[in-house]
Specification:
Length: 171
């Protein structure tokens, strides 16, 4: 918040965010918009909406921010989050991700399975929210059954038009 008073855009500031230990992703993104220089982030926790967190990690990948990759991520969305964004952020930090405040997750069946099996790291707080499969057309009955076993939340797959698999998998 001390750097929030910086005015203008396009400045070539060299900035290090060493404290606080927890920093808002939207604050990082706003600060990034004010400089063409690299911002070094030393905070151990990134908080905020998933879209802001993903934008900060995208800026880190682009070399606009540096220092991200091992911190804890706390997602504050209280509605629906995209499985693809969760998966992307999960791949970009070795720290734990907490998504407990999300009430729903939607995405492709493959992205949903990645997120719920924590294939790239730890995503805590998932398991009871509503899940929406956005695939259109055909999906694997075995994959849908696998997803069902990973969450106790209601699964909606209304855009799916057919299931593939053996008779026992489709039952």
């Amino acid at each position: 918040t001390d750097l929030a008073g910086l005015q203008g855009t396009g400045n070539n500031y060299t900035i290090t965010v060493a404290t606080p230990a927890s920093v808002s992703a939207s604050d990082l993104n706003a600060l990034n918009a004010k400089t063409t220089g690299v911002i070094t982030v030393g905070s151990t926790t990134i908080t905020g909406f998933l879209s802001d967190i993903k934008a900060a990690y995208d800026a880190n990948t682009a070399g606009e921010l540096t220092g991200l990759g091992t911190e804890t991520v706390s997602i504050t969305d209280t509605g629906t989050v995209l499985a693809s964004d969760l998966s992307d952020v999960n791949l970009l930090t070795a720290g734990a991700i907490n998504a407990a405040s999300a009430t729903a997750v939607k995405g492709s069946l493959s992205d949903l399975i990645k997120v719920y099996t924590n294939s790239a790291g730890i995503i805590a707080g998932l398991g009871t929210e509503a899940v929406t499969v956005t695939d259109t057309g055909s999906v694997s009955a075995a994959d849908l059954t696998k997803l069902d076993g990973l969450t106790s939340g209601a699964i909606t797959a209304s855009s799916v038009t057919s299931l593939t698999g053996s008779t026992s998998e489709i039952k």
